[in-house]
Specification:
The chain contains 14 helices and 17 strands. It has 434 residues and is of the alpha/beta class. Strands 7, 8, 9, 10, 11, 12, 13, 14, 15, 16 and 17 form an eleven-stranded mixed sheet that branches. L-homoserine (HSE) is lined by residues 132, 157-159, 186-188, 194, 199, 298-299. It is an enzyme of class 1 (oxidoreductase).
Length: 434
């Protein structure tokens, strides 16, 4: 059989890795597919080429590649959602299949892109977009298709997890570690996407759609970054038996879907609490299977290329079956996506870690306890530190039972209004992840 011909757009971290893996493992891959995969063309700028292109034809115009009649599959690895959107839509219009690692593009424009792909009977594959090399989209879409998914939770940004790990284990400075993550090729072009939780929210949006059969709704995801975390909170959490992780959480309730990314305390003995460095992990709870965990490198040149190339292999195999019998883009048939709403953050529920700076007066603890109990919020543990020398304030650390966020908002307002409480109450959500 003739080889399947691919075109690679963008030859940076992921593009370079993809080219190298396709070349190095060409023989093994051909044995899996039943025919070869050939890189027919590359579209790249002169700068930032992360591999030797070994004589493959190169253009600097991605649209020329998208229109190249020789090419069966366009691999979009340029990033962003302007040119990338036009490129992917052009490739689809030309009747080509698409593989992308671009979660921003899928989370923001995926509904439109999949609709166009269906019209043209082509596949848009995006395994590398979520949790890099971990085949979590395949696991959810195919491996767990017997289940009603209850919830999923994941550490899905490698850069952020790398930063938190280095800060906790080596006491390193936030900005120092971020620079290293950028040099290693983990970070997004705009690294605020990583540290403010936007990248994780893109990925969570995609996972939630596949898990629950809802359209992509990135604009409804609640996003909180890790830039406000202090070493104090990391240490207090540790003393209480927790680790702080930047978690993406999607949960189905009767009212709707919780979709949220924020720093989260996790009991230190949970597997997820021990996912360190650039590693990612996603825990998925299904009604039949229970909890399952998927772990691996969430970013980097070849781990991400592993997912890109696996998508190319899937498409090459699917070229011989009819469009209707393929696995749907969002796992569920497009005409039966559910309108179960995504909930505003106020209506989601979790336990909370609170750090309150109390004046060293008698009775403040009793007032704090009263405010919480009046709102039906139970305290699970409490820790009070020595008065801090400079300002005489006493850090009071509480962990509560689960409560609706809007009740906690109300309690925090009341706590901050107390005469005996100074400044803002720090709140970090806690998830047990059983
Ligand atoms: N780096 C990772 O670990 C990782 C992991 C998963 C997904 N991703 C995603 O993969 C995509 C690529 O990320 P990356 O880390 O490889 O970025 P990168 O910056 O290393 O590479 C992007 C390349 O595309 C080129 N490019 C940009 N616009 C172009 C255009 N119009 N024409 C030709 N070339 C163009 C750039 O010059 C650069 O070489 C992004 O969507 C990113 O979110 C990255
Ligand atoms: N910037 C992303 C790349 C992988 O999607 C991360 O650090 O996880
Ligand atoms: Na993946």
């Amino acid at each position: 059989m003739k080889p399947v011909k691919v075109g690679i757009c963008g030859l940076g971290t992921v593009g370079g890795g993809t080219f190298n893996v396709l070349k190095r493992n060409a023989e093994e891959i051909a044995r899996r597919v039943g025919r070869g995969i050939e890189v027919a063309q590359i579209a790249a700028r002169d700068t930032n080429r992360k591999c030797d292109t070994q004589g493959v034809s190169i253009t600097n115009d991605v649209f020329e590649l998208a229109r190249n009649p020789e090419i069966d599959i366009v691999i979009e690895l340029i990033g962003g959602y302007t040119v990338a959107r036009d490129l992917v839509l052009e490739a689809i219009a030309q009747g080509k299949h698409v593989v992308t690692a671009n979660k921003a593009l899928i989370a923001v424009h995926g509904n439109e892109i999949f609709a166009k792909a269906r019209e043209k009977g082509v596949i848009v594959a995006f395994e590398a977009a979520v949790a890099g090399g971990i085949p979590v989209i395949k696991a959810l879409r195919e491996g767990l298709s017997a289940n009603r998914i209850n919830w999923l939770a994941g550490i899905i940004n490698g850069t952020g997890n790398f930063i938190l790990t280095e800060m906790r284990e080596k006491g390193r400075d936030f900005h120092d570690v971020l620079e290293e993550a950028q040099a290693l090729g983990y970070a997004e072009a705009d690294p605020t996407f990583d540290v403010e939780g936007i990248d994780a929210a893109h990925k969570l949006t995609i996972l939630a759609s596949i898990a629950f059969g809802i359209p992509l709704q990135f604009d409804k995801a609640y996003t909180e970054g890790i830039t406000q975390l202090t070493t104090d909170d990391v240490n207090y959490a540790e003393a209480l038996g927790y680790r702080i992780k930047h978690l993406g959480m999607a949960r189905r309730t009767e009212e709707g879907i919780e979709l949220r990314v924020h720093p989260t305390l996790i009991p230190a003995d949970r597997l997820l609490a021990n996912v360190n460095g650039v590693m990612n992990a996603v825990m998925v709870n299904g009604d039949a299977v229970g909890s399952t965990l998927y772990y691996g490198a969430g970013a980097g040149m070849e781990p991400t290329a592993s997912a890109v190339v696996a998508d190319v292999v899937d498409i090459a195999r699917a070229l011989s079956c009819s469009p209707e019998s393929r696995v749907p883009h969002l796992a569920f048939q497009p005409d039966v996506l559910s309108d179960h709403p995504v909930l505003p953050i106020g209506r989601s529920e979790s336990a909370y870690y609170l750090r309150i700076h109390a004046k060293d007066h008698p009775g403040v603890l009793a007032q704090v306890a009263a405010i919480l109990s009046e709102r039906g919020i139970n305290i699970e543990s409490i820790m009070q530190k020595e008065a801090e020398e400079q300002d005489g304030l006493v850090p009071m650390i509480l962990v509560t039972h689960r409560v609706r966020e809007e009740h906690m908002d109300d309690a925090i307002r009341a706590l901050e209004a107390l005469e005996g409480v100074a400044g803002k109450v720090v709140r970090i959500r806690v998830e047990q992840l059983n």
